[in-house]
Amino acid sequence: MNTQCPSRDFIYQDWILTETKFNPEQLHSRGTVFTIGNGYLGTRGSLEEGHARGVPATFIHGVYDDVPVVYTELANCPDWLPLMIVINGDRFRMDEGEVLQYERRLDVSQGLLSRSLRWRSPSGKIIDIHFERFASLADQHILGQRCQLTPHDSDCTIEIQASINGYAENQGFNHWEGLDQGKTNQGVWLQSRTRGSQIEIGMAAKMTISGAEATLQVSIVPGYPTISASFVATSQQTITVEKLVTVFTSREINQPVTAAQEKLAQLSDYTTLLTANKQAWDEVWQKSDIHIEGDPTAAFAVRYNLFQLLIAAPFHDDKVSIPAKTLSGFGYRGHVFWDTEIFILPCFTFTQPAIAKNLLTYRYHTINGARRKANHYGFKGAMYAWESADTGDEVTPRWALPDDYYGEDVRIWCRDREIHNSADIAYAVWQYWQVTGDDEWMRDYGAEILLDAAIFWSSRVEYNKQGDRYEIRGVIGADEYHEFVHNNSFTNRMVQWHLEKAVKVYDWLGRNFPEQARKLEDKLELTSELERRWQDIIKKICLFYDSSTGLIEQFEGFFQLKDINLQDYEPRQRSMQTILGIEEANQYQVLKQPDVLMLLYLMRPSAEFPYNEKALATNWNYYAPRTDITYGSSLGPAIHAILAADLGKSTTAYERFIQALMVDLEDRRGNANDGIHGASAGGIWQAVIFGFGGIQLTEQGPIANPHLPPTWTSLKFQLHWRGHWYQFDLSREGTGDRGLGTGDRRQELIISPPSPPSPPTPPSPPTPDIRGFIFDLDGVLTDTAEYHYQAWQKLADEEGIPFNRQANEALRGVSRRASLMLIIGDRTYSEAQIEEMMERKNRYYVELIQHITSQDLLPGAIALLNELRQAGIKIAIGSGSKNAKTVIERLGIADKVDAIVDGYSVQKPKPAPDLFLYAAHQLGLQPQQCVVVEDAKAGVEAAKAGGMWAIGLGPVERVGAADIVLPSLAGVTWAELRTKFPQTAKR
């Protein structure tokens, strides 16, 4: 069966996608669509002969490298595709001569991409050309190409050049430095290494020609080893050119170039390798195929999306995971998100559990990165990165460039505030264990992930003594249109769920594997006291749920935001955040993607609180109309499709399903060029199985309660559950009633029901609701300024630059670089010299501060800190110094502060407000709830720019813009300060 794509140049068959017209305007989006791979690497659908606009790309799992200062990304590996064809002196190109016939086909049953065309050269020669390529699933290190050439109307001389291009770039940055290259009896080879991560790659290639007499020649152009041949082809004679490539990296073998050469020497012919590849794919599809009858478009498109997940799945590597854009594009730079665990993983858990195990084990191998992130933010346990790469450390860029060339950079707060992914990973760990019954993996890997992330939550939650409840403040939930919220229901309930499962796993481990339990107790410092804290958090965490209606408030205060009717903005082709602006979208009840509904979906399998039929209907009716489902997040449509199917809304369910299904094939969001929407592809599997198939999980195994779309006559698939395969053959006749779980199992956890939605009220003028103090370090709590001066003086003396104490006063509150610039004045230094001097000064300073003790605290500092602690005021250190943590430890006050924000925390120094805004975020407070204590003009300006109160210590001429000016902290008390703020507020 086949069907025509609405774009008129795609034909869908059961297993084959056919493109009938080449459009250079779609070069990059179709490059994504025609990606092939084998779970080790992915190669975009670039043209073998190249194109003026082309950006060939091959990504190999785990081959990350750094762009200095900016980000970590998957490196675009050397291009194995180049195949240049010259006909009687005319080079074949799609943008030259004339294309008389054209067809490109992707056969997802075996991962074979082909292109057939008839081309008239500029000199008038007509030739038929057929290309093929595959990445072997039978052997992940083998790549194959074939080109068949048939002159149509006359004899011609043909020249072929088959190359490896070592100059691959990531949108302007080349990650590779060439090490060596050469030729062998089989062909050519290339050895390169990433510039930062020092990962070596070895590639080797050979070419064979049949159907004509041809002599092969090798040219070793630096970075571009090439095999070439020329021959005469007669009319209607088919010449076949085959190119085989092998590739290894130092991630999997010590001598990758040697391995590539040896593998190449052992290879059989192209046809044999293609057959082995087909057999490997047959085995995979036996487990993963979904067969749909009655809807040809869906039948192919579902398989297509599964294919894109499978070619990105690490079949043999448990130290990598599937990036958000798979291995198909530059989008998100190859970073791994919660997309993998929540959206993609279920497909593999139920059909390819070995792959699911690899994906989850990646989180185990990167747990030290999660621990480093937790420690950086002042927490315990494992705080998983929002965007992860090879080490598990946070790689989310801190800033994004604006669309407007003159616009301000956009702060990416997800790295700091979107923290629910630690619970999402725990959810995936638990689901894998429940589905597979893999106790051994849970014992050796999963338990540590789940328990250490639970330790993080026990340090991240905040106890509200007045309300006798635990809160999680200053977060971003699943809905990213709201960037700084308190008590997000999705986050809080997922944390509660996580701790519930942590208690169970801890108990299970102790009963079944006591030795492993003792090891983890020692390693993670697990105690009965900690377990009691988990139980207390479970009991008292804040959840805004109205038991009479089932309505859940997305976060504290959401119902007080301005309401919105999305129909008022139609028609549109932009997201609501783009239309409203980032700040304005924060003020409206508009969602980027499901948040409360996402929570209900995740609680759905076991009908856990707050999921029940009434709650689903109530929250669907409230939140679905407020969700930017078309241009918000691609993660939303598939989830909406499942829940709509549950509610019997078959038309809506199918519309949302198609929206997700065709997001890349039809480029519905206009960003397919960035790569495959991996989460959407995983959501499609879930929409078919759990939505339309109605699969529910029981102790006896999965059962179906289908809701097939009207046109579907049959749906067939199989699921793996605890060692057994379950076959499903569902038909329209078998469609039954919705089997929704009922019973509100956890209503006793309701802490604070929300008020009914009401029209928003105008904001009140600022009031002195002080809940946090942010102290600068130098000149406020201690006088390390003297040590800074001594370090600068030593540097200046060594460089022969005049410098004294009077000149040092101008450096107060100024960053290290800015201070150095003031010192050197008009003198000329290279950037390398400047960097060296800054490092030298810092070395001197670090040596000096080793002698700091608690005796170096300034008068009044410790007394005020103690009084603030007793009053329940949160305390942060906000210092531009990159040695702040060392100083605080030496002063002996680390236990008196809740957060430390230093020169590593933000990009822009004072007087930009970023440092103090970040400190407020770390305290979980709004800026207007914080007081900054500073001794420098730049610090006071930063506090005021951030909307905070400012106390200035020192001369009025230096800190006069502060709300309160004091000579020092000596004799200062919180009780006295409190009386001064109301007067300030009246000004």
UniProtKB/TrEMBL annotation:
<dbReference type="InterPro" id="IPR010976">
    <property type="entry name" value="B-phosphoglucomutase_hydrolase"/>
</dbReference>
<dbReference type="InterPro" id="IPR023198">
    <property type="entry name" value="PGP-like_dom2"/>
</dbReference>
<dbReference type="Pfam" id="PF03633">
    <property type="entry name" value="Glyco_hydro_65C"/>
</dbReference>
<feature type="domain" description="Glycoside hydrolase family 65 central catalytic">
    <location>
        <begin position="303"/>
        <end position="686"/>
    </location>
</feature>
<protein>
    <submittedName>
        <fullName>Beta-phosphoglucomutase</fullName>
        <ecNumber>5.4.2.6</ecNumber>
    </submittedName>
</protein>
<dbReference type="GO" id="GO:0008801">
    <property type="term" value="F:beta-phosphoglucomutase activity"/>
</dbReference>
<feature type="domain" description="Glycoside hydrolase family 65 C-terminal">
    <location>
        <begin position="705"/>
        <end position="735"/>
    </location>
</feature>
<dbReference type="InterPro" id="IPR006439">
    <property type="entry name" value="HAD-SF_hydro_IA"/>
</dbReference>
<dbReference type="InterPro" id="IPR023214">
    <property type="entry name" value="HAD_sf"/>
</dbReference>
<dbReference type="Pfam" id="PF00702">
    <property type="entry name" value="Hydrolase"/>
</dbReference>
<dbReference type="InterPro" id="IPR010972">
    <property type="entry name" value="Beta-PGM"/>
</dbReference>
<feature type="compositionally biased region" description="Pro residues">
    <location>
        <begin position="753"/>
        <end position="768"/>
    </location>
</feature>
<dbReference type="InterPro" id="IPR005194">
    <property type="entry name" value="Glyco_hydro_65_C"/>
</dbReference>
<dbReference type="InterPro" id="IPR005195">
    <property type="entry name" value="Glyco_hydro_65_M"/>
</dbReference>
<dbReference type="InterPro" id="IPR008928">
    <property type="entry name" value="6-hairpin_glycosidase_sf"/>
</dbReference>
<dbReference type="InterPro" id="IPR005196">
    <property type="entry name" value="Glyco_hydro_65_N"/>
</dbReference>
<dbReference type="InterPro" id="IPR037018">
    <property type="entry name" value="GH65_N"/>
</dbReference>
<feature type="region of interest" description="Disordered">
    <location>
        <begin position="736"/>
        <end position="769"/>
    </location>
</feature>
<dbReference type="InterPro" id="IPR036412">
    <property type="entry name" value="HAD-like_sf"/>
</dbReference>
<dbReference type="Pfam" id="PF03632">
    <property type="entry name" value="Glyco_hydro_65m"/>
</dbReference>
<dbReference type="Pfam" id="PF03636">
    <property type="entry name" value="Glyco_hydro_65N"/>
</dbReference>
<comment type="similarity">
    <text>Belongs to the HAD-like hydrolase superfamily. CbbY/CbbZ/Gph/YieH family.</text>
</comment>
<keyword id="KW-0413">Isomerase</keyword>
<feature type="domain" description="Glycoside hydrolase family 65 N-terminal">
    <location>
        <begin position="18"/>
        <end position="251"/>
    </location>
</feature>
<dbReference type="InterPro" id="IPR012341">
    <property type="entry name" value="6hp_glycosidase-like_sf"/>
</dbReference>
<dbReference type="InterPro" id="IPR011013">
    <property type="entry name" value="Gal_mutarotase_sf_dom"/>
</dbReference>
